[in-house]
## 1
Amino acid sequence: MNFAQQALNGLILGHAFALIAIGWTVLLGTARLVNFAHGQMYMIGAFVAWFVMSSWGLPYLLAVPAAMLAGVIIGWIMQATLLRLTIKQDLVSIMIVTLGFGHMLEGAAGLSFGSTGQILDTPLSLKDIYIGDLWITWQDVAIVIVTIAVFIALKLVLEKSRLGRLVRMVAEDPKLALLAGVDVRRVYLGVFAFEGAAVALAAAVVAPRTPILTSMGFQEVIITFVVVVLGGIGSVTGSYLAGLGLGFFTAFFGAYVSQAYATAAMFGVLIVVLALRPGGLAARAGGR
Amino acid sequence: MRIVLWPAVALAILAGPWLLGGGGAVFSAFVLIAIFATMAYGLDVIVSDLGEVSLAHPVFFACGAYATAISTTRLGFGPVESFLLTVLTALAVAAVIGLVTLRLREFVFSLVTYAVTVVAMTVAANWAFLGGSDGISGIPLFSLAGWQARTDRELWPVAWALLMGAIYLVDAFRRSGLGQRAMTVHLNPELATMSGIDPLRTRLQVFLVSAPITAAAGWLYAYQRAYISADVLETYFLILMLTAVVLVGRRMLLAPLIGTALILMQEKFLSFGGYVDSIVLGGVLILVLSFLPGGLAGLARSGLKMARRGG
């Protein structure tokens, strides 16, 4: 394993992390909501893509929107259940309810897809690219392109469009937005549906890199936490950079120190960041 | 009234398995309910009194389980020594987690404590000292002063004593100065600071009270299962604890016990298989928090009110 190959791995992994976390970044940054079922929604996205390809024979290009549709439905149902708590901004209860949803999703996935691991092969993941002695697949290229496209589109929508202004207004002051005639409920539902679609897209694009298991959501959510916190909660550009930084860190840590403890090391980074700037983070994130 | 009522309730619980026919499955269910209720009591103190949600409590449960598994299989410790080691380990780990998360509030606190649990699981599954992915087997029978608990029936008095100890501790905590301070910090942080209460110190102290309770449940769980692996850190235990704490109602002394009993009775006697049970447990947690903020007790109270108004 040479240095250049690890740097390349880090670059791809970093884009993957940023893409996985983008739903949470928007959810937390614009709506001040948290979703502990994020990891399980990633898992469902991966399994839906795998299922429609292996059982229904759909092509990969249709499996991606199918997974996203499942994500939208789950996100919508979750937020519909959470609406009362969201309006009250009862973050602690919202958090536990989303944990409950995660547990349900894992049970439902076990029931539908079984407990054995699967491989999500796509036409892109089977095609290799060699540059000298460096090796990547076309799937890796797709991860980088999709991530950059999603981040640019998101930044444009949030900062330049009416929809973006509406979402930011609701995040800033839900009660004032309500008085101004904004349908706050619909904005919350929309943001949650976006979170579902975004994480399912990430799953359909990123999950082909590793075997998929119905229990994988438990760990997946840590990556999201770290990216969102490192990036400065809610910052779109920040979480892209944080994703990249974390990708390089994980690639090199995994190659030169220990693969098994990569998650633990990532968590160490999180703790250091929190120790350095606990006040600012809590004040902004708590929203009060 | 209290002096008569509580011993009567305690004795009724002790006699419970015999009153319910005394079958092996009944004793097993009672032992597990006692262990998991004790586990939930530790979390109850944090959720109900401090008003924060710790998602690191499976780690304390695992501390007890692993401390017991390692000390009994490798050092030949008996139940008393392994219990002391459990408490010390839990206090040390709680002090570290408590100090790191001291200034974090609300969901950032929960987020970091959740991460602690996930990381603990990867460490437990990979570190050879903790048995790695194979776990630790061959934990001896619970034997104290020449007496051995070979079955769940024989282990029941120990589990009962553990549960009673936990309930007594939580009750004593709520009556203590620390308990009062915790409530003040929870309900009115400004008032607490003005009254000279140090919120950070109080938080840390409550954490140190809570952790050994949950860890003590892990101690008995190791004896009951005779085998411990990274499974003790699974989300199931976390969801079980949280649901047990919120299901019946907050700050009611017997609520975690009744909550645990309801959940485990469904899993033991009305089970639909592991996956459906997960859906049921997650669903109960969602429904209670989204639609029954007062828990089942709140529902019963408003039901009574409506009945009175109707009559």
Note: Confidence is low (pLDDT under 50) at residues 279-288 of chain A.
## 2
Amino acid sequence: MRHSWLRWIVAAILMICAIAPAVAIDPLPFQNEAQRDRFQHLTGELRCMVCQDESLLASNADFAKQLRRQIFDMMQQGKSDKEIKDWLVARYSTFILYDPPLAPSTIALWFGTPAILLIGAGVVVVLLRRRTRPSNAIAEEPGDDW
Amino acid sequence: MNEAARKPLGRFVPLVVFAALVAFFVVGLVWNQSHDARFVPSPLIDKPAPDFRLPRLERPTEFVTKADLLGKPYLINVFASWCFACGDEHPVLMAYRDKFGIPLVGYDYKDAPQDARAWLQRHGDPYHEVITDQSGDTAIDFGVYGAPETYLIDAQGIIRYKHIGPLTPEVIAKELEPKIRALEQGT
């Protein structure tokens, strides 16, 4: 008896989970495929502020739905991607962009990793150069011959 | 002869590098815990509040605009009857509404007016004025992304402070009240 109960509950939960992704895509009346692709690309680059690990494209939050609608409307008005992003940044700061812009506060973010890589490469080169000299000396030793 | 034996200090280089990495790691961890990543500083601080024209909750045919509220500082508190954290914040607003010394404007966010009215009747109305934004479009201009949020707007209509999340007596004493006092002294 209990098991049949459980089975129904599990089935219901699975069904809800299966429906959820379909509901997340709101039926926005795009003019054509290209516009839909542009919309999906743009909203995929934007952070949903309330559920920060999701993009505006993927999120089912009310906030994301509303911003998707607004972005769609702005596209209909002929706004460029940059204009739309600037509009959002003015309200929600650059945090809403997944790609951080190049700014004084993000210099470490943009150039930190290449800098560390270069330093590491430099260290490796120096170590290898130092090491080649003693190893040449070892190679000249007759006892090393096996 | 290897490197470490030739230069005794050389063998500590990896240790120093490792210690530096651990330091970065610890700083990152501590910093991450010390602030809530959901609270993003608003780019609208010290910028003019957006223009708005929103109906009153009690008399929906009457509209309140930004221009109507110019001339004296005021607080805008974004709330909704569906918002759990607003219920936590509500007693604090009731206790402080007369202590702020400036009007407290309720901003009913994406809410059915009858729900908001019922909510205020049940819990008490801490606001001097309540405006409603059912679509939430104006809220986007304010950079609202969750309720409750509180804005301090000065007499010239400039946003001077924003708090995301429920106001607590600590936040009011440490952050909000000093900002209000500073406005009153004309700085």
Note: Chain B has a mean pLDDT of 89.
## 3
Amino acid sequence: MATFKYHLLICGGTGCKASDSDGIITSLNKEIKEKGLENDVKVVTTGCFGFCEKGPIVKVLPDNTFYTQVTPGDAAEIIQEHIIKGRKVERLLYTDPETENHIADSKHMGFYQKQIRIALRNCGFIDPENLDEAISRDAYMALGKALTEMTPQEVIDEIKKSGLRGRGGGGFPTGLKWEFASKNEADQKYVVCNADEGDPGAFMDRSILEGDPHTVLEAMAICGYTMGADKGLIYIRAEYPLAIKRLKIAIDQAREYGLLGKNILGTDFNFDIELRYGAGAFVCGEETALIHSMEGERGEPTFKPPFPAESGYNGKPTNVNNVETFASVPVILLKGADWFSSIGTEKSKGTKVFALAGKINNVGLIEVPMGTTLREVIFEIGGGIKDGKKFKAVQTGGPSGGCLTEKHLDTPIDFDNLIAEGSMMGSGGMIVMDEDDCMVSVAKFYLDFTVEESCGKCTPCRIGNKRLYEILDKITKGEGTMEDLDNLKNLSNVIKDTALCGLGQTSPNPVLSTLDNFWDEYVAHVTDKKCPAGACTDLMNYNIIEENCVGCTACARACPVNCITGERKMPHHIDQAACIKCGTCMEKCKFNAIELI
Amino acid sequence: MSSVKVKLKKTDIDKLAEVCKSFNNEPGELINVLHKAQEIFGYLPSEVQEVIAHELKVPVAKVYGVVTFYSFFTMTPKGKFPISICTGTACYVRGAEKVLDEFKKELNIQVGDTTADGKFSLSCLRCVGACGLAPVVLIGEKTYGRVAPDDVKQIIKEYMDQ
């Protein structure tokens, strides 16, 4: 086997691919060939490194040099300088925003220092399309251990002891769920992996499937062993073509190696996995809806009980877990429940992956121990707020979660704390907002989402959310009353109490949490008819700054309703009563003389 | 049963029947069949749904119910260059709405519509998971990241003469 002096790892995740990481790979390979280095340097396409803000990323091993925002044009310099001459390409290194020093080794970057990677342990290290590389990082070792050294009950006990809770948002103890499914006798049982990552702004499941698909297959097989199932199904979004492709490759390779199929690792255990595709319905993340969708039906949820552990896919006992949950399982069996439960807080063990996005400097995927504070995540790992603006809120838990503010920054993040603060963990999306974001509009944005995604089966969700949306819309237009604010609160509580499934029961959370934390902002919209963040255009007026206006008449000529008047070379004036707030004047003005207040 | 009112060509019907057969005409595979059918035809007009219902031996109403439930399935043909704007939260807070407005203005169509020349269609989607590049626009398979309203004209121009 060839031994290479250098490995160039390049992120082949969806984000970096969109920034032409394929082009970089081609250029690097071309340079390597031209310089005759084929036997010394190997280019490896890996999964996501997590630091999406600075992508595409090229990492050089063995010296661990981390090049950021690389373009295909940089390939020649990397090969010439780094590989041939042994000098780092300074201009491509990460610059610490505070000290402005270049940092070569990712271990020393603020973004990585506080992270512990369990579910993401192989993402960015291995070629996800190569099973040998996965095996070199212990893939399928845990399955081997379970099949040959442990009874199904021992595996369940180990998972129970580890304290692992469902990472899809519910936080239900995984071991307990497995135990329920194992105790229901049936001729056929199913293991289902929920990869229908519909929460906008969350992309951890996609990254795990793109970067380390085998860990999910392995964990599903382990689960199958504990509950006596020989069939696994992965329900994945059709919007994730790359993850689908890599899963298909991984399943084929695992079958070829005898790690899926009949008599796995020479035991009498059989297990195989198939893919099922979603078709764009958020509610299908709910397990009963997901099961109906897999059966070819409309993805409408049904009342629990019966739980899927009793009657799930095709009426058979079914265990549904999320991708990230499965990805944590093999390590627990290898390193032990005690190791896993030593990380985290009292009731939430281990780590959690978060997708940091929004108005934050370091957008990306991070994995931190439970109990890390929001401040550490946003300011130390996330590098603070973009463009030096002021932090206003962080939205966790997606459309089911809530907005947390300054006063929550020192709350240790775990399942129970977030719920106590009026939000929730959800699947781990974290959207950071700054002073320019209007919280009424944000609540409206989420309600717009829920209204569109409500399956329509139960009245509170179908009609109640629509009414919530309409009231919010009225408020952002400056037509709200104080009575509307009371109605928002009452209606929200009714929907929470009466909706059929998790989607409806949590959909008012963005409204309730913004009402709680940003009451003054709602009142400003209602009584002063002002949007403090300056985001609701209906509440804003275009105004000409007299000192800046040179009287060029460009705005007056462009105004579609002729509401701007003034002499040539004299400051102009906008007739507010006639203005339709189209913004054309502001676009046309070359002298920054028009402001929105 | 020959109740299918055909505007489809015989070869198209055969193709659909083959797709259904590749899934053993199993009603439980309806969604997979629809995915394949949409890959072939680009959209799922009622005639296509009728053929599928016939092959899988389920009511057309059921097929229609499933098609209209999922946002991925569409009953109107898409443009030659389908434009999708990500309106996930990360893109929203980084100004996706303004980008969407600019596309609407430039193409003079609404979300869900196709331009009269059949060249462009406009749709919104929820998060492609490339939040590091927000706001994101997809045209066909190509992803455009960090799109500003000012970039929209140029992006459309790239496809105008194709």
Note: The longest helix of chain B spans residues 10-22.
## 4
Amino acid sequence: MSFRKKFILVVIVFGLLTVAWISMDFKSQEVPFVSVSDLVNNNEMFRQDRFRLGGNVQEGTIHYSDDKLTVDFLLEQGDSIIPVEHTSAAIPDLFKDGAQVIVEGSYKDGIFYADNLMTKCASRYEEESKYTSVSETN
Amino acid sequence: MIAILGNTLLLMSFAFTIYGILSASLYTANGNRKFMLSGERAILSSSVFVILSTIGLLIELLRSNFTLEYVARYSSAETPTLYKFSGLWAGMQGSLLFWVMILSVFIILVIYQNRNRHQKLMPWVLITLGAIQLFFLAMSNFFENPFTPIPAGMVMNGMGLNPLLQNPVMLIHPPLLYLGFIGFSIPFAFGMAAMITGELDTVWIRTTRRWTLVTWLFLSVAIIMGGRWAYVELGWGGYWAWDPVENASLLPWLTGTAYIHSVLIQEKKNMLRIWNMVLIMVTFTLTIFGTYLTRSGVVSSVHAFAATDLGIWFFWFIILILVTNIILLVVRRKELASVNKLESFVGRESGFLFNNMLFVAMMLTVLWGTMYPILSEAVTGTKITVGSPYFNRVMIPLGLLLLFLTGVGPLLAWRRTTTRSLRRNFTLPLIVGLILTGIFGAVSKITMIYPLISVLLISFVAAIIFLEFFKGTKARRRMTGAGYFRSFFELLEKNRSRYGGYIVHLGIVMMFLGFTGKVFDKEADLSMNQGDIKTVGRYDIEYTDYWLETPETNPDTRSNHAAKIVTLKISKNGSYYTTLNAERRFYTDQNNQPSSEVSLKATLFEDLYIVLGSLDLHSGNAILKVRVNHLVSWVWLGTFVLILGSLVSLNISGLIKGKSL
């Protein structure tokens, strides 16, 4: 076997090893973006333990614990609503009533425990701005 | 008035570029030099127009002409003057114009440098660059025009700049990133020209060598500055999160880095000619793809702009580039085949090839993870994301293998390396590495495998590099009889690219040390009242005071925001260490949009990182996020070393003396 062939063989083996390494544990790293109603009603159809949900913070449902470190609120997406609990000292700057948020975490007994709370930033931000409201009224 | 002028110039440059491309194409067909000159002048004028047009937009931003939609959207009367400059790249329209402006500056430089050179390549270089310029000019003129007036006439004040962008780093990071992206157009254009004309020797590579290195340096620094910005501004405590937009900047860096290594083999051995062509094409395509990813909104990200229909045009532009490239590669495949063959696994050539293999594997890994949400949605209907666990799992081992090659590769001999020379070069560094890893393991009590391997490789590679400098200096001293100091600098002077490369590698090693420090990180969420003392790691944090500053109380420093501030007195190991003010801002020109400013006390080994989550001005209750981050400073220090090494390689003094790029 020529050296060139050997080298190509090494590259292929390396490639296969990398792919194998990626796929070995891939399923457990997958975080599906699901709808609230699917999560609540068809919970058994998912293999994964972690999920992402998107929706809006229902007006007036934000509630902080006494030490202000844990926040809970209702996340609404269309007609579906799910209670979300999140513990962190650094709540994103754009988190407020009606804000569009994405939460990531696990679902247990009807409550979504989010370890990651993200606010939809740039686009939302433009919509809410006072300038756009000026042009909308015109 | 200025806006109309800017808009007209922009439209004129579109027309001039079309003419320039046509004229240069005619020259390639009929050989009449006049057409080439005319095409060159047309594209030069077009580039000057773009620059003037950009200056026009900048003037409008600076004088707050809110009759322009773009100006009203990304600045306000209260925006500090410095940050009115950032308005230029804060939005889609401005950044497209800024993009084509930088390309135009590069085009002018390339035309000037090569005015008497590369007569066969230049027409195609010009046509390629013109085509890229035309695409962005079309976007800028017809889809995302920054000079669009506000439909309803004058608004009293603009919306102001996104507070996240009001950070000094954001004045430098985007321009650097653009320089780093757009710079790859130049070697790409020369590669295309080489393919089309069949001038496939090393001329196109050598003539763009410096362009590539400078571009690579810009891109490297830009990526790290992006991390720095995330660290000091976003306040989640780290500098890299595998966010799609971060990944978009990393993709061309990975293949670009592979490219600057593998062209060395082509220069020395005339091998890998197809491969280098493929690498530069992929790298350029990835820079366009990265722009597409961030500007089209196909992936949601903290940094991405809102979804627009621009995406489809970018998509077809990328397809066009890929198809052209593939056709050219197929046509030229025979002429590109290499003459020399590989001979051994332990030779310099193979070292470079393994290096390339790793970079490409890393690129594909990042690409797969970034595109997975889109691909999975297309296939299964459910958007599935993979986050940091996926990237870390794959990238850490690949990165460590690469770190190993960083040390070993440069010491391998061309063709094949003898066992004796391996032993001579690597025994001492390996011993140093093992001893330091042993000490590290014993002191830190870390038993995780990756940090230990990482420390072993870091000390191994650093020892190799220091030993190389030491040996080189000693040899030089023996030869010339000069002192150590002088010999050292002569060594650098005589072999810039090699020793500059070593210095860059040293910078990378330092960064790896910073990455490794992550295993020690500590985080605590605190709820404190005035007078409370709480402990995080070795730090005792005493909350002593709080107050409010507003645009009325502090007009000079807080023209566009109010700030709630807490004072924290911090002791380390029981004795006074420092006092930090943590603040949370509310931008008055942005509907009181809050923004937390990170307060940071950084040392070589530990960063104390505090974010004020909220402060109740009545009760004084403050919510704080406190992190102790380890070795992060090494990432920034490594960057400086990387810059230094690149400058040594680039021979800056020669550059100033007028050597061509």
Note: Residues 301-306 of chain B have pLDDT under 50 and may be disordered.
